[in-house]
Structures are given as C-alpha cells and as structure tokens.
Automatic annotation (TrEMBL):
Residues 1-48 form the BHLH domain. It holds the Pfam family HLH. The lineage of its organism: Eukaryota, Metazoa, Ecdysozoa, Arthropoda, Hexapoda. It comes from Megalurothrips usitatus (bean blossom thrips). This is Protein twist. The keyword DNA-binding applies.
Amino acid sequence: MANVRERQRTQNLNDAFSALRKIIPTLPSDKLSKIQTLKLATRYIDFLYKVLNAGGVSAVANLAGEVVHGGDSDGDDSGKSGG
C-alpha cells in the first residue's frame, strides 16, 4: 500500500514539473532536469516581477538579457542527471 502511495506521489511530482516546464520559456530542444527547471523558474519569476516594476521598453529588454544570459551562482549546470 505504501508502495502505491509513493508511486502516486512521484507521478504527481513529475506531472507538476512537466506543467512547470511548459510554462517556462525555453528552446524546444532543451531537456531540463528538475533542478534546472526550478532555477530557471526562479529567474523567470524574478524577471516577471521586475517587468511589472520596470518603467519602459528598454528596461524590459535589459531584464530579458539578464534572464537569457544570467548565470547560476552555484555553478551547478553540470548536467541533466538531477532527475
């Protein structure tokens, strides 16, 4: 019985990540790990927050460049094995 609950929990988590990957703007060829998905979602949310508070098109363009070219401070772009 616990095995069934764990499989269902894992499936629900995977479904949630799949839905999140559909929302985050990426290239169609990108296959993101879970940690990459969470990092990108965090940057995207920050970008959207800044867009709402920015005052003009040039500010939005600058922010878009930060999201696209922004690096990870922890250096964990090592691979897609995060699951």
